[in-house]
Write a structure and sequence with these properties.
This is D-alanine-D-alanine ligase-like ATP-grasp enzyme. With 362 residues, the chain is α+β, with helices and mostly antiparallel strands. The chain contains 13 helices and 15 strands. Helix content is 35%, strand content 21%. About 3% of the residues have low confidence.
Length: 362
């Protein structure tokens, strides 16, 4: 049908037609699968005896228990560590516990300070090693959230790995916003050039780089300013986090994953029954950084569009993979519901979570 026609189809049937929903609907309609709106106009399909809806990256495809587990980064980390999976060591503090948090952080330097859940990469402060910087970061996060997560910094290169029904579907290397010097242009000019390229490329998921106080501070750490002229091929980093919404680059890295990294990612999914789709933020040893893969966090509402539209590298049709995981291969005529977590696995998970219940009540 094509995405433009699918988008018109969704609007005609009163279904929200964002890019994610359009991609999924296009793959479903191509297979003759009925799509329809629910009361909130979300893209809905009947999978076996269950209704599954999608609203952008939000969906109910994961079980309620799985969604609750991955919502809190500190809970997820402790759960994975119980399964002997390398996960970031962290503690969530209330925003009035600055000195208690610093006492913990001093033994873990350097540290990362960030919100305990959600956040879209906002207010993530990386590589902190002195109290003044820690206090500023703690206050900035505390202004947005009642709790502040303090985490031991782990070296490595950040990747987002998409899992569908426990199997690796795609991976992207996430590169923080940056420009590459040509020996002539200032950093401000290089940013303008890259933003112009963003516009010309019409890539729907890669955003322009905002020039703000965060950029100024990050450049200062490298002894740069917006008027500096970096040498040819020299990189100037503009933001501490790699989120594409703040100008980062998503680069396809699916074929670069090592067998042990694929195994670790899939073991992570198995640790949480009912986790049918997930985006793992992994720190992988690359370019001389890090020595072992670690799980930073699990996103239960992952953005799939980045794998369809990388800044460069191969596009991965993960929307088709998702539809196939729900309904089987095209040759399989009988729809089948997503696998239900085994009752024994669910009991084991609930037992492991019992000591962490206070964290869910925050």
């Amino acid at each position: 049908m094509g995405l433009a026609q699918t988008e018109k189809y969704l609007k005609r049937h009163n279904i929200k037609a964002g890019l994610t929903s359009t991609l999924i609907a296009d793959r479903a309609l191509a297979r003759g699968i009925e799509v329809f709106p629910d009361a909130q106009r979300r893209l809905t399909m009947k999978v076996g005896g269950r209704y599954v809806w999608f609203d952008g990256s939000l969906s109910n495809i994961n079980s309620v228990l799985a969604r609750r587990c991955v919502r809190y980064k500190d809970v997820t980390s402790r759960l994975l560590q119980n399964y002997d999976i390398n996960a970031a060591t962290n503690v969530a503090f209330s925003r009035d516990q600055l000195h208690q948090a610093w006492a913990w952080a001093e033994a873990e330097m350097p540290v990362v300070v960030k919100p305990p859940n959600d956040g879209m990469g906002d207010e993530v402060h990386v590589g902190i090693s002195d109290f003044a910087e820690f206090q500023r970061a703690f206050a900035a996060v505390g202004a947005l959230s009642e709790s502040v997560l303090v985490e031991r910094f782990i070296p490595g290169v950040e990747h987002r790995v998409l899992l569908i029904h426990g199997k690796v579907a795609a991976a992207a290397r996430r590169i923080p916003a940056h420009v590459v010097g040509d020996g002539v242009s200032t950093i401000a000019e290089l940013v303008e050039q890259k933003n112009r390229l963003r516009t010309e490329s019409a890539n729907p998921v890669h955003f322009q780089i905002p020039v703000d106080d965060v950029v100024v501070r990050e450049l200062a750490k490298q002894s740069f300013a917006l008027g500096s002229v970096p040498a040819e091929n020299e990189r100037a980093w503009l933001r501490p986090n790699s989120n594409v919404h703040s100008g980062g680059d998503g680069v396809d890295a699916t074929d670069e994953l090592r067998p042990e990294e694929v195994e670790m990612a899939e073991q992570t999914a198995k640790a949480i029954p009912g986790l049918r789709i997930a985006g793992l933020d992994l720190l992988l040893p690359r370019d001389g950084q890090g020595s072992a893969p670690h799980v930073l966090e699990i996103n239960g509402t992952p953005m799939i569009t980045g794998h369809h539209y990388p800044w460069y590298g191969q596009s991965r049709d993960v929307a088709a993979m998702l539809v196939e995981s729900m309904f089987g291969k095209e040759s399989d005529r009988r729809p089948r519901p997503p696998e239900k977590p085994r009752s024994r696995a669910s009991r084991q998970l609930r037992q492991r979570l019992r000591p962490l219940r206070p964290l869910f009540r925050r």
